[in-house]
Amino acid sequence: MNSAPAPGALVVERPGALALVEDLGRPGLAHLGVATSGALDRGALALANRLVGNPDGAAGLELVAGGFLARFRGTHWFAIAGAWGEVRLDGRRIAPYTAARAADGAVLEIGLAERGIRFVLAVRGGLDEPAVLGARAYDTLARFGPPPVEAGRVLPIGAEPEASVPVLDREAAYPPPAGAVTLALLPGPRADWLGEGATTTLYEAEWRMSASADRVGARLEGPELARRPGELPSEATVAGSMQLPPSGRPTILLADRPVTGGYPVVAIVAPESLDLLAQVRPGQAVRFRHG
Predict the structure, then answer these.
(1) Which residue intervals define the domain Carboxyltransferase in the entry (predicted)?
(2) What CATH number does the domain containing 213 carry?
(3) What are the pLDDT digits (tens) for 42-73?
């Protein structure tokens, strides 16, 4: 657990549905048209990093749905947070939210997610991919940053940080909810665009996460919300902005979000609910409460 350089790499043999290098993103560049990007479940990334003694924002892997297989080059500490599913190191099952040490050549396998949808893998030293605009984060809309991970990719691991691996064997961990997820909702800057009865419907209805949800936006299926006709000039957005297009079915903009494109932002998912939202599976129920 001493601080020392740890040259090595993670050699990806099977990336699963989608594997992205992500850190905490690029805040403060919205005036240049650059989204924040970064891990959708920011709390999971920070926790996984703390488990191995990294700074909260060290770059790790965001793995959608699991199905991941990789081999360590060198001896390294790692931890997995976020979604829950079976994780094995050289065939031995690893408990969630636990720091584990992989020997040189060890094989890490992450099964399909059983709760939640996004695993976060942190390796002590962080993934030492080239930074773009100050971050090791891939923007799926603008398509810049470390590219999506494919089979055969060798991900370099950085030098070990000064902090040691915490003595605590295991962090208290709770799996993402399997049933309906309740998110705190704040009024948006264009809440007056909601039509008669729409606010009541928004809070009383049970919504479902669409299968087309991604890092740009989480589209919800449910009743049609009445709204004022027309469009607005494009406006900047924050993570959690709920747009209401003419269809009347809301979309919640996430880390790789664009500007509004003319649709009103009628509400905003509160920051404390964004990590919960990041783990909602397609078809899972979503409800809202006043934040």
Answers:
(1) 31-290
(2) 2.40.100.10
(3) 999 999 999 999 999 999 999 999 999 999 99
Cβ(233)–Cβ(262) under 8 Å?
yes
Write the pLDDT tens digit of every residue in 231-263: 888 787 889 999 999 889 999 999 988 776 789
Decide if 112 contacts 11 (C-beta within 8 A): no
Q: Count CA atoms closer than 13 A to 63's CA, side-chain side.
A: 29
Q: Please check whether residue 117 is in contact with residue 83, taking contact to mean a CB–CB distance below 8 angstroms.
A: yes
Is 171 a member of any domain? no
Q: In terms of Cα–Cα distance, which of 77, 74, 87, 76 is closest to 16?
A: 87
Do 49 and 140 lie in one domain? The reply is yes
Torsion sign (Cα): 52, 158, 108, 120: positive
Give the range among 160-169, 194-203, 216-225 with minimum mean pLDDT.
Answer: 160-169
Closest CA to 69 of 106, 32, 22, 34: 106
CA–CA distances in Å: residue 219 to residues 70, 144, 237, 252: 32, 23, 16, 6
Instruction: Please give the DSSP secondary-structure letter assigned to residue 45.
Output: H
Q: How confident is the prediction for the chain on average, in pLDDT?
A: 91
Does residue 192 share a domain with residue 128? Answer: no
Q: Residue written as tokens 């924002």?
A: 57
State the total domains in the chain. Answer: 2
Residues 94 and 127 in one domain: yes
Mean pLDDT of 202-230: 93
Whole domain around residue 61: which residue ranges? 8-157
Is the pTM value of this prediction over 0.85?
Answer: yes
Collapsing DSSP states into helix, strand and coil, what is residue 50? helix
CB hemisphere CA count around 104 (13 angstroms): 4
